[in-house]
Amino acid sequence: MQTEPLKQKCEQLLQNLNSQLCDFYAQLRAIHIDQLERKWITISLIVIGLFVGIIVIDAFFHGVNPPGKVETVDSASLHLNKEFAEDNLGVQVDAKGHVTVRMVAGRYSFFPKHIDVPAETPVTFRWVSMDVLHGVHIPMTNMSTMIVPGYVAEIITTFPKPGEYPVLCNEYCGLGHNHMWSNISVIAKENWTAPVKSPAKGVSNNE
Amino acid sequence: MNDAATRKLALSHLWVAFIAFIVACFMGQYQVLERSGFIPALDSPSVYFASVSTHGVLMAFVLTFFFIMGFGYTIATTSLKQPVWNKPLAWAGFWLALTGVVLAAIPLLTGKASVLYTFYPPMVAPAVFYIGATLLVVGSWVWCVIMLVMFMHWKKANTGQPVPLAMFATAMNALLWLWTSAGVALEVLFQLIPLSLGWIDTVDAGLARTLFAWTLHPIVYFWLIPAYTAFYVFVPKQAGGFLFSDEMARLAFIVLAVFSLPIGFHHLYMDPEQAKGWKLLHAIGTFVVALPTLVTGFAVIASLEIAGRLRGGKGLFGWIISLPWTNTMVLSVILSLLMLIFGGFGGIVNASYAMNAMIHNTAWVPGHFHLIFAGTTVIMYFAIAYYFWPTLVKKPLFSSSMALVQLWTWFIGMSILTTPWHVLGLLGQPRRISSVVYNNLLTLAWKPYEFMMIFGGLILLGSACLFIYILAKTQLNPAAEAFDQQIEFAEPIYAVESLPEWLNDIKLWNKVIAVLMAISFGYPILQFFFMDSSGSSPWGF
Ligand code: HEM
Ligand SMILES: [Cu+2]
Ligand SMILES: [Cu+2]
After folding, report:
1. Domains plus CATH for chain B?
2. Best mutation site among B52, B382, B409 for ligand 1 pocket (most ligand atoms within 8 Å of CB)
3. How would residue A199 be classed by pLDDT, with cut points 50, 70 and 90?
4. Residue A116: phi, psi to the nearest 5?
5. In this predicted structure, what is the pLDDT of residue A2?
6. Pocket residue to mutate for ligand 1, from B360, B361, B370, most atoms within 8 A of Cβ
7. How far apart are CA A33 and CA B514, in angstroms?
8. What is the rounded average pLDDT of the residues B493-510?
9. What ranges make up the beta strands (E) of chain A?
10. How far is B194 from chain A (nearest CA, A)?
11. Per CATH, which fold does A75-191 belong to?
12. Which residues 90-129 in chain A show a CB within 8 A of chain B?
């Protein structure tokens, strides 16, 4: 086998790279940089490091992340999809008490058109599009995600304050884009009752 | 710059840019009026979205591309003291790009391509729109080739000598743009054109967004580099001083070009088709690319301080007062920096990974990019135009006091337009809506801000008209006497005699970019070919 020459070649390559990097570093050090500018660059690097540090620590230790669970779905046949069939949409609570909301975005509304969720409780939203690209944002909250056809946009959030909130489409999706919105009622934890059956209609009586 | 043919080439590019600009400004003003809802007769989503699509394309792709090309030809010929290499090719590029603009304009203006300047599938426009856009980009590639060839010819003829800083920056920009445009080019050629012609039935919308994000960040640096170039090579001399450091300027351009490319996923923070880890990686890169801007801010302010003190300014702030505020270039850079500082704060919010959720796709976003693009960047385009015009048309500037008024009003108008726009975003208003029909109390709070924006827009529109007026008057001035003003480049405090090759060439950086792009986009793009995804069929709008 020809492993020996290959190994030699690799070593030589590494050596070359190493000496090139050393040269580069020496030349970088030789650049004339004013004292004041050096200080400024140091401060800039510290500030940038601080920002990056906070973001990374938040991401790894506090789980502060944007949505990012890559999961596909066939947007053209949502009606055949068990999870997003009409009867399954809206709010559901599993045996452990975890609240999941399944929503379909389509020109020009979010379905179901009205949902009730509890405040101060983690809620898992699962959004899918049945046509084009949409985005959804509940103003004054961090419930924001793009809804890309072909993908399930999953996002977990907790609403701190009870109230009536609009649910707005925030990506241009056609000439009716202005009209694409729905409602969500965030209800104080103690007043909220889990929907018993058929949450699909999403009819609510506190309007 | 005495060669009439080169002047004609540069002027033709710059005029196309500014005509696109003024047309789009009228559309911008119509848009703020329409969306405010104060004139019910104007209300029309189909006209609004045709207008926003055209305004976006004209400002983001036509004004910028043609301005950058005209700027590049002027810089290359004056800084290298060489004629344009292969003029027929340069003209071919010009006509190709212009044909592209006309082709794309037909469906845009007739409301058949209201897909906005980001044209996200699976919404599709007629193929002619994408073909027009492609020709425009191919025309800009011709310019890139000419810039890089002139750069290399000069280097060959002047071995071992430092390439003039202005040309180094321009060559870096050409390299940056070739890499930047590849993303959207792949999207258009393999997804959008085949889809709109019916050659394929479906596209992966996630892949399309990923490819577009490849382009979407570095393109803003492509727009910005002429402004930064002016900061370094024109401002110090115009202010009466010296460039603080030639080498640091080169380093700044290198870091800008290299690190603006592999970070596009900050546009996809809220997207489901890319995983968190990749987003975090790009978030870190996004903060790294703030460094060259901080270095540039330092260099410009230091150069201005030197000039102010040379002019007799004393004390901690006295030098600011003694700057030549009536020099258009100096005034522009001051206003540009002010807008950059505020825009920079907004940018940190956008860039901050999960914090992005708060403002993503809200009115904050157009507020932010009008401030930093239509403000910081475009005000330097004005300054450059005022500086080049006397040289290009061989006549004195029609009125420099009018030019100063124009610059001040642009700054004031932009402040009045973008401040309420940011607030609207924080109040939850989505971007890209033609009217407010949400039946919700929240929207009442939006009204006064939308009203303020109309005034900002009016001031801007007046300012834009004045700009065109000054350029036209300068050129049409029947003055017979030969006027000769040369373009002058700032001298650094310490002249550079020799530079390491990596500060004087782009080859190494091309390789570095290739590696970084492979790392940051390799897997995220390849994943789509292994994923069990079903694709989306085309939709109209
Ligand atoms: C007279 C001054 C201007 C006014 C009043 C104005 C106003 C507007 C308005 C109202 C929108 C629509 C935003 C939305 O629907 O959310 C818009 C979009 C846009 N503007 Fe301007 N604009 C002006 C100048 C400029 C300039 C100078 C540039 C850049 C050089 C620019 C770049 C853009 C771009 C790229 C878009 C597309 C945004 C999108 O598709 O979301 N505008 N402008
Ligand atoms: Cu929508
Ligand atoms: Cu970006």
Report:
1. 4-529 (1.20.210.10)
2. B52
3. very low
4. -115, 130
5. 56
6. B370
7. 29
8. 88
9. 90-93, 99-106, 109-111, 114-118, 122-129, 134-137, 144-147, 153-158, 163-169, 181-187
10. 18
11. Immunoglobulin-like (2.60.40)
12. none
Report A:142-161 residues touching B (Cβ under 8 A): 142-154
Any idea which residues of B carry the catalytic annotation?
A: 217, 221, 368-370, 431-432
Question: Cβ–Cβ contacts within 10 Å for residue B95, how many?
Answer: 13
C-beta separation of A123 from A158 below 8 A: yes
The domain limits of chain A are 3-61, 75-191
| B480 has pLDDT over 70 | no
Of A55, A73, A135, the CB nearest to B352: A55
- Distance CA(B210)–CA(B216), nearest Å, equals 10
Q: Do B418 and B456 meet the contact criterion of CB atoms below 8 Å apart?
A: yes
Q: What is the CA radius of gyration of chain B?
A: 23
Residues in chain B within 8 Å Cβ distance of A69: 272, 275
**pLDDT digit string, tens, across residues B142-163:** 999 999 999 999 999 998 899 9
Q: Which of B28-32, B222-226, B530-534 has the lowest mean pLDDT?
A: B530-534
- Which stretch of B22-31, B219-228, B235-244 has the lowest confidence by average pLDDT? B235-244
DSSP letters spanning B417-438? HHHHHHHHHHTTPBSS-SS---
- What whole-number distance in Å separates Cα of residue B188 and Cα of residue B130? 7
* DSSP characters over A26-79: HHHHHS---HHHHHHHHHHHHHHHHHHHHHHHHHHHS---------B--GGGGG
Q: What does the block give as tokens for B495?
A: 């002249």
Give pLDDT, residue A87: 84
